[in-house]
Amino acid sequence: QVQLVESGGGLVQTGGSLRLSCAASGRPLSIYNMGWFRQAPGKEREFLTIISWSGASTYYADFVKGRFSISRDNALNTVYLQMNSLKPEDTAVYYCAARHNRGGLKNQPYFPDDFPYWGQGTQVTVSS
């Protein structure tokens, strides 16, 4: 099975940017659709975005549209999350997740149970 490791988190000021990376090993990344979630203290894990195995299709949660961008490089077995215009409410642990490609993406938010494989998460803290 695939192993996922996130990196790139840290402390940033309001309005700043970060790029998270998710490196995969054990299986080729190209067989998976990849998603990003986040979880703030005391809150449920929430869906942010997903990208299809080829990178041709993406879907974003409404609250990150225009600020976050997902991309992937299958040759490098890596998925990215570019986050711009960060706000204090974006503070959370950010997780990447993988699900086997079975057809196209659904144009609605995904749930954590839709993804069997997870990384350990990377902390993002946005200071006001």
Strand and helix layout:
Layout: E1 3-7, E2 10-13, E3 18-25, E4 32-39, E5 46-51, E6 58-60, E7 68-73, E8 78-83, E9 92-100, E10 117-118, E11 122-127
Parallel strand pairs: 2-11
Antiparallel strand pairs: 1-3, 3-8, 4-5, 4-9, 5-6, 7-8, 9-10, 9-11
Descriptive notes:
The protein is mainly β. Helix content is 0%, strand content 49%. It has no helices and 11 strands. The strands form 2 sheets. Strands 2, 4, 5, 6, 9, 10 and 11 form a 7-stranded mixed sheet that branches. A 4-stranded antiparallel sheet has the order 1-3-8-7, with no helix packed on it. A hairpin with a 6-residue loop joins strand 4 (32-39) and strand 5 (46-51). The protein is globular and about 40 Å long. The mean pLDDT is 96.
